[in-house]
Amino acid sequence: MDADQEGRPRSGGAHVRHRTPGGRWSAFTASPFLPAIVLTFILAAAAGVFAGSYTYNMANPTPHRIPAAAVGPTGTATATAFVDGMEKALNGSLELRRFPSEAAARSAVEEQEVFAILTFRTDRVDFAVAGAAGASVAQLLAETALPVAKAAGVPVRISDVKPLQKGDPRGLALFYVSLAAVIVGLVGAIQLNVQASELNPGERIAFTLAYSLLGAFAIASVVDWWLGALRLPFVESWLILALTMFTSGMVFTMFNTLMGRWAMLPTWGLLVLLGNPSSGGAVSWPLLPSALGHIGRWLPPGASINANHTAVYFGGAQHVFPFAVLAGWALVSIAVFWIWRGRHPGGRELNPAPPTRRGEAAPGLTE
Asked: Interior CA angle at 363 toward 358 and 366, to 5°?
């Protein structure tokens, strides 16, 4: 072996170690570069899917089935001409349901069973939309009824029997309120996982509940008391938003237990990419693609908007279903997290051994 003047081996080309392809791949997979590269492509794909999901659902809403109440004689020439014109203009999506009186039809509006009331009189048609039931549906019906009535030669009088609040003329405030609860709920869980990773399972659930209650109170306070955009049934809306935040946080915690650092993928896909566009908040369910309209009701964002929308505008007809959906997702997430809590990153020893001085035996150890 060649040596320098001090006797150390020289570094020659024959002695340089070259990694095999397998060794280089092993080193690469153990480095931070692999997840960074994968994450780069995932984020690029997620950006396109995110934009596409909202554009697909909201850019060109098309009616599929719009339930409407019909009161009065529907067999007259006036009624037949108007209904036929509306059916043609809406591609057969108007679903008329007969009611014996206007009071019964108004009750159906309160129960959110119908989106409009058509009252057929001898000389005209009274067309009453329900803006609070779905602003986009009410706008579509009103814009369609005027040209149809003009073409059929039927006098029509349009009114809104359930208008939106003045601070929310487009009916989007509840969508953004629920969106805030969903996003902050899952981001809070992510931050607990990063900044407070030593929390044990029970403590993690408790702090998720704590920030949900405080965060929901902040959202409701700003929207109602500060901005005055909506007059909320405060306690009910606050608790709905808190349940939404808690559910979103626990959904991420569940996926984090099952999938580790890739938990954001199913959480974001379920709650944001699929859940928010199909929630019925920005575009009412009758105008969404039919499959998404049904799926949205079973996901936390749709359930949150459904519950809060009913609380604000139809307080006397609140339904159990959206609360059951939110509670179901929360309980399943808690159960999965608790059963497989040993796989969850983080945690700490509740009774760690006290530090020992040099030369002292640790407690419980004898010579």
From this structure: 85
CA angle 157, 127, 99 (to 5 degrees): 140
Residue 112 CA: distances (Å) to CA of 67, 109, 314, 315, 319: 10, 5, 8, 11, 10
Q: Which residue from 134, 93, 76 is spatially nearest to 309, judged by alpha carbons? A: 134
pLDDT band at 109 (very low <50, low <70, confident <90, very high): very high
Both ends of the chain: CA-CA distance in Å? 52
- Is the predicted pLDDT of residue 320 greater than 60, yes or no? yes
* Residue 24 confidence (pLDDT): 75
Mean pLDDT calculated for residue range 121-126: 87
Query: 171's torsion region: left (phi>0), alpha (psi -120 to 50) or beta?
Result: left
In the structure encoding, which two tokens stand for residue 96, read together?
A: 């008329």
Sheet of 94-98: strand order equals 94-98, 66-71, 116-120, 125-129, 156-160
Q: Which pairing describes strands 94-98 and 125-129: parallel, antiparallel, or unpaired?
A: unpaired
